[in-house]
Specification:
Helix content: 25-40%
Structural class: alpha+beta
Distance between the termini: 19 Å
Strand content: 15-25%
Oligomer: single chain
Length: 306
């Protein structure tokens, strides 16, 4: 397997650009009680908004967090991408998650267009990014593969920033957030599921890679340390016999984060990249994606034997 393939799956940093357009109205103050969900002036804003967009056999479930985007406020966008074949797949059935894709989204309309790369978010077929709407109004979000010839959907939908969601979106507001993946294993004794832990860790990791101000970086590191401390003992279903290996990788990740926090600022970007390749990706290719059976000699790997 090539180095490029390994690095393609690693987490990376994205920096959103914000610019003014013709509409000069100031962003709404999120602390004001009158800023509520579109069409719901009595209750608090929804925690998330979901909709499904279709193109041919492709179905893309989009999740926006928070559920009512506002100018000047960071928005999390998640895309759960899957193909629904006419004939069920022997392995996946009637829903085949899009894995290993290189996708991007473009936001345009109310303000200056922005383009963002999407990154795997831990669950098969789920990709995400963060974006801060610069202006109030209707935005068009366009999803497409980086390689135009790739087998992936090309589609778009609209969302409203501080204005009602358009009827064409046909989505729904949800009062509480939840893990995107359906069928996640239940937590044991109140412990968060592995899917929930990895989702939160992925979001925090993306923040860390942006080069945060010192105070925000300390907060992100504290959150990451708390999350990685809970990973040991949470091996995915089907990997009971490999739980010790999973726990060792989890402990290495914790040590990597401690090394990052203790190191000089100028060395942190290199440490972050090394951790993504040597620890995160090593775990993902076996315990998340299931494409290899042995990572003991990483980066040399042994594929599953059918």
């Amino acid at each position: 397997m090539t180095r490029a393939w390994l690095l393609a799956a690693a987490l990376a940093a994205l920096a959103a650009t914000a610019a003014r357009a013709d509409d000069k109205r100031a962003p709404l103050d999120p602390d004001k009680p009158e800023v509520a969900a579109a069409g719901d002036k009595k209750g608090p804003p929804p925690a998330e908004y979901t909709l499904t967009v279709k193109e041919g056999a492709w179905r893309v479930r989009v999740t926006l967090r928070p559920g009512q985007p506002e100018p000047g406020q960071k928005l999390e966008l998640l895309f759960d991408v899957a193909r629904h074949p006419d004939i069920p797949d022997p392995q996946y059935g009637d829903r085949i998650p899009l894995q290993g894709a290189r996708l991007f989204v473009t936001m345009s309309g109310a303000g200056r267009p922005e383009r963002h790369r999407l990154w795997p978010m831990g669950d098969s077929g789920v990709y995400g990014t963060h974006w801060t709407p610069s202006e109030r109004g209707l935005w068009t979000v366009s999803l497409a593969p980086i390689d135009p010839k790739a087998d992936a959907p090309t589609l778009d939908f609209q969302l409203g920033a501080a204005v009602p969601m358009p009827a064409s979106s046909e989505g729904q507001a949800v009062r509480s957030t939840r893990v995107v993946r359906v069928g996640a294993r239940p937590s044991e004794a109140g412990k968060p599921t592995l899917e929930a832990l990895m989702k939160q860790l992925g979001a925090r990791w993306l923040e860390l890679g942006r080069g945060l101000p010192e105070a925000d970086e300390k907060a992100a590191l504290a959150a990451i340390m708390h999350l990685v401390s809970d990973l040991a003992g949470s091996a995915p279903r089907g990997f009971a016999s490999d739980s010790a290996e999973f726990d060792n990788i989890a402990r290495k990740l914790k040590a990597d984060v401690e090394l990052y926090a203790a190191g000089p600022a100028e060395a942190r970007a290199q440490q972050l990249s090394a951790t993504e390749t040597e620890t995160c990706l090593r775990c993902h290719v076996k315990f998340r994606d299931g494409v290899v059976s042995d990572v003991s000699k990483w980066p040399e790997v042994t594929p599953w034997r059918k």
